[in-house]
Hints:
Elements: H1 10-14, H2 19-25, E1 34-35, H3 47-58, H4 71-85, E2 95-98, H5 100-112, E3 118-123, H6 129-135, E4 139-144, H7 155-161, E5 166-172, H8 184-196, E6 200-204, E7 235-240, E8 253-256, H9 259-272, H10 278-290, H11 292-316, E9 328-329, H12 340-351, E10 353-354, E11 356-357, E12 369-372, H13 377-395
Parallel strand pairs: 1-10, 3-4, 3-5, 5-6, 6-7
Antiparallel strand pairs: 2-8, 7-8, 9-12, 11-12
Helix pairs in contact: 3-10, 4-10, 5-6, 5-9, 11-13
Amino acid sequence: MKPLEDRIAKQVASIPRSGIRDFFELVQGRDDVISLGVGEPDFAAPWHIREAAIFALEKGQTSYTSNLGLPSLRESISKYVTKKFDVKYDPKTEVLVTVGVSEALDIACRALLDPGDEVIYHEPCYVSYSPSIVMAYGKSVAIQTKLEDKFALLASDVEAAITDRTKILLLNFPTNPTGAVEPIEELEKIAKLAIKHDLIVISDEIYSELIYGENGIDVGEHTSIASLPGMKERTILLHGFSKAYAMTGFRLGYSCAPHVLTEAMMKIHQYSMLCAPIMSQLAAVEALENGDAEVERMRKAYAQRRNLLLRKFRKMEVPCFSPGGAFYAFPDIRQFGLSSMEFAHRLLEEESVAVVPGTAFGPAGEGCVRCCYATAYDELEIALEKIGNFVSRLKS
Ligand code: PLP
């Protein structure tokens, strides 16, 4: 018999395991560790949303739904997206409910890519982007964004990366892992490039509720590229419930896209997932219809933690640009002469604090570590004190 390793499809064998998971295996089973690691809200989903799921079960609502998702949920999504992003989608033909943004991303890539088609995206980025492209037989083309530019994606870099094989431009603002938001002038230039070169844009807007304005407390501005002139017809807008509503375990997301693209994605979804879980869908209707106040409560809590973190890093003289969104900070640790992996390992061993090495998000992450501040304020204070001790030792 041939070794089982030789039976694994080449595409799958070629992709690495997630650097985050690898690092967090070291943390497993250690209850002394404060984790600023995994990008998951520390809040439970708001009670009224959980209640909607419980109520669904009590009423025996345990069936499949339409492949596209419950009509009531698609109506709510369309209404919400119109209000939030100022783009109108037909709930009957342009909205698809998925098992998280993860599934939406996967089926968007599979629906669009032929072998060798290129997808441009910006690094450091969410760990799933390149694997999702490669598993759809596409070629991933990463643009390295820079700390010096506050990790904004520059239109000039996008233009330089476009070839005649480029099919998709994949964007994520606010960005995981940097918390970067895109300056509107660059976003407008990028939209013009997408039109000029006839690209499809996949815009992952999963953190778009978690935006911090100039004073670091109020809600900041967020513009979706889908809302810019000429963009709705070439954009797949991805969004979900995991972050803003603290619903990671519900596994629910959605895509909004022109009918032809929605239909192609739906075909894959239909044969692979069939539909998203009905209890999660019913909970999501409750989230969209009545969840704004809870989202704002959590956003404000993140804003306070973000500001604490920035204050403390400033005091430690560890440069950290002010992230405009999400719940991540990406401090610059280059002064210590350690790789981001060494820094994270030593911090874990010496102070029992877990952060993620920047390189887990691509080579452009070297020199930084990701600190997720979706962690209780008191815990965060302790973690920052420990990071302060560690940093002082490195400096002395
Ligand atoms: N997109 C980004 C940028 C993320 O950071 C994450 C999760 O961390 C996801 C998508 C996955 O989201 P979901 O839980 O909806 O699958």
